[in-house]
């Protein structure tokens, strides 16, 4: 139990100290790399638009694989496969890659044929935001499943907070623009004078 607690603390610290910008490519790359080492697995995440959010490997052998790096950085899974994945609302059972939902993705099934795949939905604010994929040498045990579920829950809460914050900022900006556009010339001059004094 102490080992689970220690790993949860590690994941917690990693997520809290990571700056996430959802507008950037692979926004969760740092989180994915560190979490893969903590969970001792290969890990990657995608959002509902099929964009990869980040990927990480516990084994150094894969860290220098340019084909994998290019796949996670520049490619997407198919729309049909994405729909099938998004229709899974619970953590999946661990399945050998060659019999899993990703068996048709040759870039992955060829590299990880002997590993087991587990899917964990990323949810936040009652919305499906993406999916975490874990590749392990054996099916997840109960302790590993708890850690994986904690990771996806924390990421989901964080993503929903960031998205809501961005929407609120956009709403305030639109309200401000609308307000300024409704002012008369004399009101605009007075408003400009106030801003200049504040600055």
TrEMBL record:
GO terms for molecular function: DNA binding; DNA-binding transcription factor activity; GTP binding. The keyword Iron-sulfur does not apply. Pfam families: CodY. Signal peptide: none annotated. Residues 3-180 form the Global transcriptional regulator CodY N-terminal domain. The keyword Transferase does not apply. Keywords: DNA-binding, Transcription, Transcription regulation. It comes from the Bacteria. One of its GO terms (biological process) is negative regulation of DNA-templated transcription. This is Transcriptional regulator. It comes from Lactococcus cremoris subsp. cremoris TIFN3.
